[in-house]
Automatic annotation (TrEMBL), chain A:
<protein>
    <submittedName>
        <fullName>Thiosulfate oxidation carrier protein SoxY</fullName>
    </submittedName>
</protein>
<dbReference type="Pfam" id="PF13501">
    <property type="entry name" value="SoxY"/>
</dbReference>
<feature type="domain" description="Ig-like SoxY">
    <location>
        <begin position="59"/>
        <end position="161"/>
    </location>
</feature>
<dbReference type="InterPro" id="IPR016568">
    <property type="entry name" value="Sulphur_oxidation_SoxY"/>
</dbReference>
<dbReference type="InterPro" id="IPR038162">
    <property type="entry name" value="SoxY_sf"/>
</dbReference>
Automatic annotation (TrEMBL), chain B:
<feature type="domain" description="Sulphur oxidation protein SoxZ">
    <location>
        <begin position="6"/>
        <end position="100"/>
    </location>
</feature>
<protein>
    <submittedName>
        <fullName>Thiosulfate oxidation carrier complex protein SoxZ</fullName>
    </submittedName>
</protein>
<dbReference type="InterPro" id="IPR030995">
    <property type="entry name" value="SoxZ"/>
</dbReference>
<dbReference type="InterPro" id="IPR014880">
    <property type="entry name" value="SoxZ_dom"/>
</dbReference>
<dbReference type="InterPro" id="IPR013783">
    <property type="entry name" value="Ig-like_fold"/>
</dbReference>
UniProtKB/TrEMBL annotation, chain C:
<protein>
    <recommendedName>
        <fullName>SoxAX cytochrome complex subunit A</fullName>
        <ecNumber>2.8.5.2</ecNumber>
    </recommendedName>
</protein>
<keyword id="KW-0408">Iron</keyword>
<keyword id="KW-0808">Transferase</keyword>
<dbReference type="InterPro" id="IPR009056">
    <property type="entry name" value="Cyt_c-like_dom"/>
</dbReference>
<comment type="similarity">
    <text>Belongs to the SoxA family.</text>
</comment>
From TrEMBL, chain D:
<protein>
    <recommendedName>
        <fullName>SoxXA-binding protein SoxK</fullName>
    </recommendedName>
</protein>
<feature type="signal peptide">
    <location>
        <begin position="1"/>
        <end position="21"/>
    </location>
</feature>
<keyword id="KW-0732">Signal</keyword>
Length: 163, 103, 287, 101
């Protein structure tokens, strides 16, 4: 997690030892966050998983916004066979990737899953997520300290004829 | 009792592909049971894969991950026969761990 | 009050009669000929879906829709029925209290025989399904029978199906009038409309396979039981043939019969027989 | 003439009780008729789930003392049961229309 003093004074400042300098008041200037540090931080992003809306969850998890990039390939079905088990995967050609996360906008809590990608691990993940209803699905890749995103709409409805 | 974690790790060249399927209800806490009571949230929060003494993959999961969760990833720097240690912890303090050899 | 009921019945009756007259088919003489029925049944689907490979019909909805087939194949890499399969294998190896195991109840130790079920038992004069045979094996060895719609039965049939994967469905109808009657009874059940929705199995699985009922794509009736038991994402769990029949009934708002009632055993007999020659693909994963 | 007279009488009779609020006796009669039809449908193994729930609703309303609603629900249950009986009878032949030959 990169450290920055955003508008919320309550955001916990994560001190990473003498090496890192807390750049106070410089806002969202992108700077080279050492990839190792993001990977080493094993703490479970409790705050981010509590956010309801996608934008808040992204901010809580990464502290800044992402820009769409065609280097992030998001693969998800057009119509989900079943909202309970939706196979989703993402691959990217970006390098120095340190984290990949999935956000399901229409779910009660937007952040679905977040993966830490240490050095030497291929920046690609496949998993199965739940989707409450037809929704925008966003995948975010953190590469070399910057955020890149891809999104897609997935249609979800119930099955069966009556009951 | 067999482990709740099924792992398949296959290596070709320098890249090892890992697939894992874990037996876990992944209850969101928002679903009611037949008697109309809320089933409390019970889901895996963190899943860690270690190989040759370092983390090769760490998953932080919320309630939107499917029941009996599945994940697939690949990593470099390991060879056939190396051992991968997989462990998870859930929001109720439950946990399980297992090891698998790279085929 | 009486008049209102007659009005309601009158309208329903009229609709039904109109439908019966409108349909082109002439009701032929009623000699039961399973071989001809099976041929006609298979040709109906082969002609209706010429570009679906014959053995693909056993993949249900995935033979009807490319996008869903891709989702399915992705899941098949590490299928959700993996746990049921392992549990079934373990149960098969675990002896009963009296030391016997399931292998003692079945030909060839229960391995690679699922394609011959259900069969007609000439002594009993009735259809015996795999699920029924498993519970009878348990009872014969002093164990309590399993529920036909719960996971234990699904794990057992999943393992037995797995050991028959790829073998062709091979159901026999012995030269016994009761067997022909059971086949006919199963066929009648398959085509009979029921429930307030007034659907028969054929309304969905013969008239509109490949089309959607809300999110789900309907499977063709041909080979529809070849993948049993199935892990359904909708149930997020395993489902035996019995569970599938019971839930299909309640979907059309018909009160289900007891699992393994004669009607269910006969319709399983009919559906399996007409799928002779198509491969077993169980256990399966479905939406 | 005679025939239409009896029809009119029948109509008047059936409408008469609903003029005033239904009482327990009306409910008991309506429920008995509904239950008989429902048993017949079950006997033909062609019961509908909605018949069962309508019967339950009738009983629940009656237990709550709301006999108007209880009688209405019982009547609906009877109609549904009779429709399912008709369906079973007519399907004895009409299923052949759909058969693949």
């Amino acid at each position: 997690m990169t450290t920055t003093t955003g508008p919320h004074p309550t955001r916990r400042l994560i001190l990473q030892g003498a090496a890192s300098v807390a750049l106070l008041g410089l806002g969202n200037l992108p700077f080279a966050a050492a990839p190792a540090r993001a990977a080493a931080n094993d703490k479970y992003p409790e705050e981010a998983f509590k956010q309801k809306r996608e934008a808040d969850a992204i901010k809580a998890l990464y502290g800044r916004t992402a820009e769409p990039s065609d280097k992030v390939k998001l693969d998800a079905p057009e119509i989900a066979e079943n909202g309970g088990v939706v196979p989703i995967s993402v691959t990217t050609t970006l390098d120095k990737v340190t984290s990949i996360s999935f956000f399901v906008a229409e779910n009660p809590f937007a952040l679905a899953a977040s993966y830490k990608i240490p050095d030497g691990t291929i920046p690609a993940v496949a998993n199965r997520l739940k989707m409450a209803r037809t929704t925008k699905l966003v995948a975010i890749v953190e590469a070399d300290g910057k955020l890149y995103s891809a999104s897609k709409e997935v249609k979800v409805t119930v099955g069966g004829c009556g009951g | 009792m067999a482990s709740s974690i099924r792992v398949r790790a296959t290596s070709n060249g320098d890249i090892t592909e890992v697939q894992a399927l874990i037996q876990h209800p992944m209850d969101t806490g928002l679903v009611k049971d037949s008697k109309g009571e809320l089933i409390p949230a019970h889901f895996i929060q963190q899943l860690k894969f270690e190989c040759n003494g370092r983390d090769v993959f760490v998953a932080d999961w919320g309630t939107a991950v499917s029941k009996d969760p599945y994940v697939k990833f690949s990593f470099k720097g390991a060879k056939k026969g190396d051992e991968i240690k997989i462990s998870w912890t859930d929001n109720k303090g439950g946990s399980d761990t297992t090891t698998a050899k790279i085929a | 009050m009486k008049t209102r009921v007659h009005l309601l019945l009158g309208s329903l009756g009229a609709a039904l009669i109109a439908f019966a007259l409108a349909s082109p088919r002439v009701i032929a003489a009623d000699k039961v000929d399973p071989v001809a029925d099976a041929k006609a049944f298979q040709n109906f689907f082969f002609q209706k879906f010429p570009n679906v490979k014959h053995e693909d019909f056993v993949n249900g909805p995935y033979s009807m829709n490319e996008d869903m087939k891709r989702q399915w194949q992705e899941k098949e890499e590490f299928p959700p029925y993996e746990f049921a399969l392992d549990a079934g294998k373990e149960m098969f190896a675990t002896p009963f209290k009296n030391g016997k195991t399931y292998a003692d109840c079945f030909p060839n130790g229960g391995i690679g025989i699922r394609q011959n079920y259900p069969y007609f038992d000439t002594k009993e004069g009735k259809v015996i399904t795999l699920e029924l045979a498993l519970n009878r094996c348990r009872e014969a060895n002093g164990e309590a029978p399993y529920s036909y719609v719960k996971d234990e039965m699904a794990s057992l049939t999943a393992y037995m199906a797995y050991t028959s994967r790829g073998k062709l469905m091979d159901i026999k109808i012995p030269d016994d009038p009761r067997a022909l009657a059971a086949f006919e009874n199963g066929k009648r059940y398959f085509y009979t409309r029921r429930g307030q929705m007034n659907f028969s199995c054929a309304s969905c699985h013969v008239q509109s396979p490949g089309e959607r009922i809300r999110a789900e794509t309907l499977a063709p009736a041909l080979g529809i039981l070849n993948a049993m038991p199935i892990y359904r994402s909708e149930w997020s769990g395993m489902g035996t043939t019995s569970r599938r029949f019971v839930t299909c009934n309640s979907q059309t708002r018909a009160v289900p019969l007891e699992p393994q009632s004669d009607e269910y055993r006969d319709v399983e007999y009919f559906l399996s027989y007409v799928a002779n020659g198509l491969p077993i693909s169980g256990p399966g994963a479905r939406p | 003439m005679k025939q239409s007279l009896s029809l009119a009488l029948l109509l008047a009779l059936s409408l008469a009780p609903s003029a005033r609020a239904a009482n327990e006796a009306d409910y008991k009669a309506a429920y008995a008729a509904a239950e008989a039809a429902s048993k017949e449908a079950a006997g033909m193994r062609n019961q509908w789930t909605v018949t069962v729930s309508a019967l339950a609703a009738a009983k629940k309303a009656a237990d709550g003392g709301d006999f108007d609603r209880a009688v209405a629900a019982a009547r609906e249950a009877e109609a549904l049961a009779k429709a399912s009986i008709f369906q079973a009878v007519s399907e004895k032949e009409t299923w052949k229309a759909m058969e693949i030959r």
